[in-house]
Give the backbone structure.
Amino acid sequence: MHHQIEKFIDFTGRAVSWLTLGMVLTTFLVVLLRYLFDTGSIALQESISYMHALVFLIGAAYTLKHNEHVRVDIFYHKLNSKQRALIDLIGNLLVLLPVMFFILWISWEYVFESWSVLESSRETGGLPGLFLLKSCILLMAGLLMLQSFALIIRSFNTLNSKESN
């Protein structure tokens, strides 16, 4: 089960990683337009912020899957696999899942209100669809919860394995 979840998380992370190239190219285009043609585009500038937000929101679960998230590692690296699995299990059950449930709960109305007015940029010439970007807050929480479930299953498998290390 956790393998399918992690394949999906891998797919989303790899897909959203292409937005970093999009940010570089769009930033280059904005600079080119500004300094060579003395013109600009609010929509292009906002699209860079949108892509940046999407990379972090959707890429968070991918980062967690690959254990590349920020961690204060004082003793974790010195532990054996079963001890690490126990810490991962406790961290997912007592920290990550409750925080993601809280984010879902606290963000639901914020996102719903944005959808109710089909919120768009406040800037003239800005991007429509701000409500879609705000929806990615819920998507981030959902993806992190999925990855957390996969990590919980993996931790249980490690704790129940017969290997002793």
Observations:
- The longest helix spans residues 2-37.
- Helices lie at 2-37, 42-65, 81-116, 130-160.
- The chain has a mean pLDDT of 93.
- The chain has one domain: 2-70+78-160.
